[in-house]
Amino acid sequence: MWFLVIDFTWKVFSQTGNIETYLLLKEMETTSKDPMYLDLNDQFAEIDNPLS
Fold first, then answer.
1. DSSP label of 17
2. Euclidean distance between CA atoms 42 and 23, whole angstroms
3. Are the C-beta atoms of 27 and 1 separated by less than 8 Å?
4. Who's near 50: CB < 8 A, 6+ residues apart?
5. Measured between alpha carbons, how far is 49 from 45 in angstroms, rounded to an integer?
6. How far apart are CA 42 and CA 18, in angstroms?
7. By percentage, how much of the chain surpasses pLDDT 90?
8. Which SS3 state, helix, strand or coil, does residue 33 take?
9. pTM as predicted
Protein backbone atom coordinates (compact mmCIF):
# COMPACT_ATOMS: atom_id res chain seq x y z
CA MET A 1 0.00 0.00 0.00
CA TRP A 2 2.82 2.40 0.86
CA PHE A 3 4.26 1.98 -2.64
CA LEU A 4 0.97 3.27 -4.10
CA VAL A 5 1.42 6.54 -2.23
CA ILE A 6 5.00 6.83 -3.50
CA ASP A 7 3.86 6.06 -7.07
CA PHE A 8 1.11 8.65 -6.83
CA THR A 9 3.53 11.26 -5.51
CA TRP A 10 5.94 10.51 -8.36
CA LYS A 11 3.13 10.92 -10.91
CA VAL A 12 2.14 14.27 -9.40
CA PHE A 13 5.75 15.45 -9.50
CA SER A 14 6.33 14.23 -13.06
CA GLN A 15 3.23 16.07 -14.28
CA THR A 16 3.73 19.29 -12.32
CA GLY A 17 7.49 19.56 -11.78
CA ASN A 18 6.74 20.85 -8.29
CA ILE A 19 9.95 20.75 -6.24
CA GLU A 20 8.07 20.42 -2.95
CA THR A 21 6.36 17.29 -4.27
CA TYR A 22 9.75 15.88 -5.23
CA LEU A 23 11.13 16.61 -1.77
CA LEU A 24 8.08 14.92 -0.23
CA LEU A 25 8.70 11.89 -2.45
CA LYS A 26 12.33 11.65 -1.34
CA GLU A 27 11.34 12.00 2.31
CA MET A 28 8.75 9.25 1.94
CA GLU A 29 11.26 6.95 0.23
CA THR A 30 13.73 7.49 3.05
CA THR A 31 11.08 7.06 5.73
CA SER A 32 9.67 3.92 4.12
CA LYS A 33 13.02 2.18 4.72
CA ASP A 34 13.00 3.01 8.43
CA PRO A 35 12.22 -0.17 10.43
CA MET A 36 9.76 1.66 12.66
CA TYR A 37 7.71 2.70 9.63
CA LEU A 38 7.93 -0.76 8.08
CA ASP A 39 6.17 -2.12 11.18
CA LEU A 40 3.47 0.54 10.83
CA ASN A 41 3.02 -0.34 7.16
CA ASP A 42 2.44 -3.98 8.12
CA GLN A 43 -0.14 -2.90 10.68
CA PHE A 44 -1.95 -0.73 8.13
CA ALA A 45 -1.95 -3.61 5.65
CA GLU A 46 -3.67 -5.78 8.26
CA ILE A 47 -6.28 -3.07 8.85
CA ASP A 48 -6.92 -2.72 5.11
CA ASN A 49 -7.32 -6.46 4.68
CA PRO A 50 -8.50 -7.90 8.01
CA LEU A 51 -9.49 -11.28 6.52
CA SER A 52 -6.03 -12.33 5.43
1. -
2. 24
3. no
4. none
5. 6
6. 30
7. 35
8. coil
9. 0.58
